[in-house]
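Figure S4 source data
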Amino acid sequence: MAQHPPPRHRVAVLIRPGFIPFELGIPHRIFGIARDAEHRPLYEVVTCTPGGPGLVRSDSDVLVQVEHGPEVLETADTVVVPASHTSGPDGTDPAVGDPRLEPELAAAVARIRPGARLMSICTGAFVLAAAGLLDGRPATTHWLESDRFRRLYPRVVLDPDVLYTDDGDVLTSAGVASGVDLCLHVVRRDHGAAVAQDVARRTVVPPHRDGGQAQYIRRPVGIERAVERAASSGAAAAGSRGTSTAAARAWALDRLDEPLTLSDLARHASMSVRTFTRRFRDETGESPAQWLTRQRIEHARTLLETTALPVEQVARRCGFGTAQSLRAHVTAALGVTPSAYRRTFRRAA
């Protein structure tokens, strides 16, 4: 008696006006080409929209004819919520600025069947959070929106440094392309490494990316230096130089290669170490040591990206002294070694 293949896992991608075509394509591509040993499709991927079948405009000049409405969510095994970027009055996703979902979207989310797996791409996490589906759970979103996310949803355990989070039946990914990492992770979890690696090879992407979102977040030291100098000038003009640590921060940024101590910084600010430390944390939210380490890491990133200096010289120029120390600090902050970071971000000469 012939055996029928098991039913395919149904993935519903819930898009809204202003969706990003790339994000819509990620689950269709990754899940859509996953095959078992007999080359049978493992997933069925469908697109739906809260407003019902019809044309949906993306954030560009692309319009998509969507054949399904929110009723599909009642039969989906996995629901993927991508971001929407241009449907709000200020050009952003309305879900990003409002802790409540608009009624049509809320009604659609309410139709997701119990037990369905939930996934978000980029700021799609705001939709899940607004629906109360991320309370008490780990989650991530695009690093540019992490502060806003924390303000709106303090009950969510946000980690802005990772590429994705997996809390069993609820998974979230960081900005845009990290949706690829998340979908590959889900294929690997569902069907094993061999299937995921086959999908990755056919898509011409790495089956797993080292590090997290932190390696893509930048505030160049040059910009930081300009900000600190402006703050220092403003404090001096107001006659309050002795009450701010801005001048000491600007001074330190010009000397990152030197063995700066807390006493050096406090002395430059004409403060006691205790007063300087307290005021520094009030102004920056960090201890002097944390701030100095972060600036040295940013300077090291710039040197790794823009020069061919050996790692040992990079370490000396940014104040870490040795390649071993640089490697430890960069790996702890970015999740990748200096050499791996340089291979990813080194600019062509």
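Figure S5 source data
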Amino acid sequence: MTVQELPGAVAYRPTPPPAWKPRIDPTPLLPDPEPYRVLGTDAAASVAPELLLKLYAQLVRGRRYNTQATALTKQGRLAVYPSSTGQEACEVAAALALEERDWLFPSYRDTLAAVARGLDPVAALTLLRGDWHTGYDPREHRIAPLCTPLATQLPHAVGLAHAARLKGDDVVALAMVGDGGTSEGDFHEALNFAAVWRAPVVFLVQNNGFAISVPLAKQTAAPSLAHKAVGYGMPGRLVDGNDAPAVHQVLTEAVSRARRGEGPTLIEAITYRIDAHTNADDATRYRVASEIEAWREHDPIRLLEQELTGRGLLDDDTKQAATDAAEAMAADLRQRMNADPVLDPMDLFAHVYAERSSQLQEQADQLRAELDAEGEER
């Protein structure tokens, strides 16, 4: 029998102490009920033609990059490739929203964002080829290593952004993650630290519907992933992830907000993964073809072409120029990826620790001895 069940007992209704009050008003932090859009709305008229054409050229190039990288896996030149076909608007907008001094923290699916930021396409694929730890110097390009463990790049982004602010550096970090990554503890820890520290960081969640084969409804019961922002004290934004100028605008505003010292933002971009999770995945086991075709009608390139054509900004010559540039990139990528790389096995021990441990040195010495013995046998 509980206290409440005793005869004559007064119901126990605990109340917070008198000093309790909300730390901040949650209302401004809540996302809009519908994803923000630009294309097909009155807002499209205010987008500069130069930006629309730049986005279009990058989308066409990005689509060709995805198809070429996927083909390289079938030819054995890549071990695995997580395609971002259908998500190119998020990838391109993320790269273009940053200043040169800012940092990008990509996941394993965000090679296109790194390429759109200026990274050599071959360098972006080096990790997925299995040749090198990263394939590029993160400090030189201000692009963190492609992160294959889910969401572990998010605390790194917060740490870098917080450190930059403490040093007085005008730097913003943009961290990209998929909807599956929001189920990881690193996601929640990163958002909490970022909000408490008011770190200049932007979190972009590409909600493409599936964490491999697990649909979003089996991961969370939240109204949207953007709603999770209010629990940490930061604004949440919901945007159509296939609307390139909309994603660019929302990201640019969030980056500017972070640069002004107003803290982090969580952005959920609603998009769709047209291809399988990777070339090793059979997506037909968990989704139907009609679902994919419905999203093809909302393709980011198609949406932008409609806007550009309607405004008289896209003619056959402009389309051909974008296609030619994309084909030239693909041809160069094919040629260089088809060349067998010259690898040094001793590179396995490079960039592991700033000061090599005794155990690692012992392993390095052992490998060196084996390589020397093989050389003598030849």
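The CA atoms of residues 209 and 216 lie 6 Å apart. The mean pLDDT is 93.
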